[in-house]
Amino acid sequence: MFSVVIPLYNKELSIENTINSVLEQTYQDFEIIVVDDGSTDQSAQLIERIQDPRIRIIHQDNQGVSAARNRGIKEAKQEWIAFLDGDDLWENGHLEEICKMMSMFPDEKVFVTSFEYSDKRKTFKHPRNTPIFKIENYFKEAIQESLIWTSIAVISRECFSKVGYFNNNLNRGEDLDLWARLAKYYAIIKSQRVTAIYNLEDSKSLTKTKSHYHKSILSIISLRDKSGYERSYFKRMLINRLKLDLKTLDIVGFLKIVIRHNVELLR
Fold first, then answer.
1. Which of these, 211, 195, 206, lies nearest to 6 by C-alpha position?
2. Does residue 208 have a pLDDT over 70?
3. Whether the model pTM is above 0.85
4. How many CB atoms are located within 10 Å of the residue 60 CB?
5. Which residue in 7, 23, 105, 139 has the most C-beta neighbors within 10 A?
6. Are 112 and 148 in contact (CB under 8 A)?
């Protein structure tokens, strides 16, 4: 039922735990597709030692996290694509919770649970009246709350034919770009149950490495063609980055955003 796509780049210290968190799921109908994105350590060799016929390893030259995830999606044999990064972990009831959500909303195509950070930091959550719900306005709620993260998302493969794949040109915010495209066409079903752990400790993570401006979602945002909450969502993203650039004295990054968006940031 599920194809679990795991992009891999130099994760020899964490990948076995990540794979085991899938193998230990209470729901067992899945395949695991590991896309080795040109690792130079022993990551791939460690996976090859795991004796489970549901695991496939695909090797490719280093192309970045978006290309690795896209390769996994295209190689998937199942209808539902579940994502998990090579240093993150699922609780053993993650896929079972997704199945429960699917039974409640059988016509929907995008499902996400909830996560916690490995350092237990507090995060903003909107108050909810039910443990599983439909997000009514993604852009309005995502201004404050991190509603979606890659390792809690399960998406029908047909969605990618409609909205496209992860942007291969990005290595920072490539997930936010995809969620925004999905939110325009599909309802998003969310569970408040925490079923995954976002590992903040691995500095070599594909999705957590430092990004240049031209490789970031910031470089493709256009405020001119957006309105309402969608515009507010992306404007807040840009302003938050400007504040960070000032704090870290990244004057070049600051000027690139100001020059690109100028008066649109003041509206």
1. 206
2. no
3. yes
4. 12
5. 7
6. yes
